[in-house]
Amino acid sequence: MPAAIPTKPGSATLPFFGVLPKLVNIEGKTLEGPGEGNLCFSQPWPGIMRSIWCDHERFVTNYFSAYPGNYFTGDGARRDDDGYYWITGRTDDLMNVSGHLLSTSEIESALALHPNVVEAAVVSAPHPIKGHFPYAFVVLSNDKRLTEELVKEIKCVVRDKIGAIAIPDVIQQANGLPKTRSGKITRRILRKIAEGDKQADLGDISTLVDETIIEHLWENRLKEIRTTG
């Protein structure tokens, strides 16, 4: 409520009346006092989403299965000593690489600093030792090709900006990224491509601006496998 309570820079301030947020760690334990974790709600309030049209099972799976008994928003949050909350970002934008939590958006921003990278998207892919690793898709400028030298340059930018732990294990060239008409990158498709499961269900792709991009991404991935395999 504007002017009802003092504000703090970047904070969503205090919960509205009847709204009971809580922070939960990755093991599902409720965090008390100041801390940072997954943002959940323990009770409903008037107007909260109640289902997904014709797919209630998906609603339950997406929002209540991660932390049973709690509505999981999919966001991370931080709470200070005064009970003020800050939203830290989507939890699916984070990956655990050798015990380090890395932000995919931060890596994307670093990749985009290279003058030949027009656009970049990073997803998490499974790794037998590290747990996960950053898999990057880059759209290059002026008909550039992704040479070994260019890959080294791009990785150096990430190292200098964030650190060696954030360097993508794989950088794949993309003609474009799968986007909806609203301009949102459909990351679930990129994750399936990074995982290499071509038989995987990609979900609804009818909202994509250009569905042919998916096949181009698979072709580039397969070329890379044949080249490095």
TrEMBL record:
<feature type="domain" description="AMP-binding enzyme C-terminal">
    <location>
        <begin position="106"/>
        <end position="184"/>
    </location>
</feature>
<dbReference type="InterPro" id="IPR045851">
    <property type="entry name" value="AMP-bd_C_sf"/>
</dbReference>
<dbReference type="GO" id="GO:0006085">
    <property type="term" value="P:acetyl-CoA biosynthetic process"/>
</dbReference>
<dbReference type="Pfam" id="PF13193">
    <property type="entry name" value="AMP-binding_C"/>
</dbReference>
<dbReference type="InterPro" id="IPR025110">
    <property type="entry name" value="AMP-bd_C"/>
</dbReference>
<protein>
    <recommendedName>
        <fullName>AMP-binding enzyme C-terminal domain-containing protein</fullName>
    </recommendedName>
</protein>
<dbReference type="InterPro" id="IPR042099">
    <property type="entry name" value="ANL_N_sf"/>
</dbReference>
<dbReference type="GO" id="GO:0003987">
    <property type="term" value="F:acetate-CoA ligase activity"/>
</dbReference>
